[in-house]
Amino acid sequence: MSDFARQQSAFQRGILSGDDAVLAEILDSPKEKREVLYGVYRHAYGSRLVEAMRNEHEMLHLYLGDEMFDAMGHAYVAAHPSQHPNLRWFSKNLPDFLKSAERYRDYPVLSGLAALEKVLNDAFDARDAPVIGLADMAGFAPEAWAGLTFQPHPSALRLDVSTNASAIWLALKNDETPPDAVALEQPCRLLIWRQDVTPMFRELATEEAMMWDEAASGIPFGVLCSMLATYDDPDAAAARGAGYLHGWITAGLLTGVSGGA
Q: Which residue from 10, 49, 70, 98 lies 20 to 30 Å from 107 (Cα-Cα)?
């Protein structure tokens, strides 16, 4: 390694890890000490990453405010130095960080907000794919429906949150005063997807969430209806299953259907 390359490596290591060894190779300027000069680079590095986090987590930023968000952001930068050349992926571990970091783990609404914004961003960036329509379903004979399996659109994602983070997110998005954060007795089951170019989400009832999760794993429609029969009126299970399926198709949540032979 050349001397210049070694200095570059030491300079980068000092910014990423706080190692001050490189200061021995930096000269004071006539007006400022080397520690201050080098600190400008350290601050700029962290600030740029925190700025990227603000862009990725707008509602969390609104919820915390500038000062608290920046403090949280710099703590995350220290715990998770950037490992990817694309800033889009820098904050991917933020929900887990907020869930485990001592300063934030007692406020699960924060990790919930971060997780919701992460999956909304993921849905926006998901690859495109054609979606099936109701006309596609009309091509299957009634006796074939029991064997049908469905493929979710690449942007369709599921998230369970233990707080009212989704209600807080919606209030902030609509420029309304958010409700107080509360822990839920049962998780809020969310389905996130992209419609045209807009990521969105809605809450699922327990039964529909079960059906979606199982359908996404390849369980055929007939088995899904049998599973629905354990939740409520068994005689109406097939009709409820068809209703859920109708809603998924009209929302553009499915990109393929197969089987039924």
A: 49
Which tokens hold the place of 253? 């949540």
Rounded Cα distance between 113 and 59, Å, is 8
How far apart CA 64 and CA 76 sit, in angstroms, is 15
Q: What is the pTM of this model?
A: 0.84
| Per-run averaged pLDDT (10 residues), the chain, 261 residues | 51 53 53 52 70 95 97 91 76 96 96 98 96 92 93 98 98 97 97 95 97 97 96 93 96 90 56
Residue 247 belongs to some domain of the structure: no
C-alpha distances in Å from residue 71, one per residue of 50, 77, 116, 203:
9, 10, 21, 31
CB 199 within 8 A of CB 155: yes
User: Does the residue 197 lie in any domain?
Assistant: no
Which domain, by its residues, includes 65? Answer: 1-106
Q: What's the CA dihedral at 238, 242, 244, 246 to 10 degrees? A: 180
Residue whose C-alpha is closest to residue 134's, from 243, 225, 211: 243
Amino acid identity of residue 67, one-letter, is E
Instruction: Judge whether 79 lies within some domain.
Output: yes
Q: What is the DSSP string of 12-68?
A: HHHHHH---GGGGG-PPPSSS-HHHHHHHHHHHHHHHHHHHHHHH-HHHHHHH-HHH
In a domain, 26, yes or no: yes
**Would you say 65 and 110 are in contact if contact means Cβ atoms under 8 Å apart?**
no
Query: For the CA atoms of 65, 68, 74, 76, what is the dihedral angle to 10 degrees?
Result: -90
Q: What is the DSSP letter of 242?
A: H
Backbone φ and ψ for 231, nearest 5 degrees, come out as: -90, -35
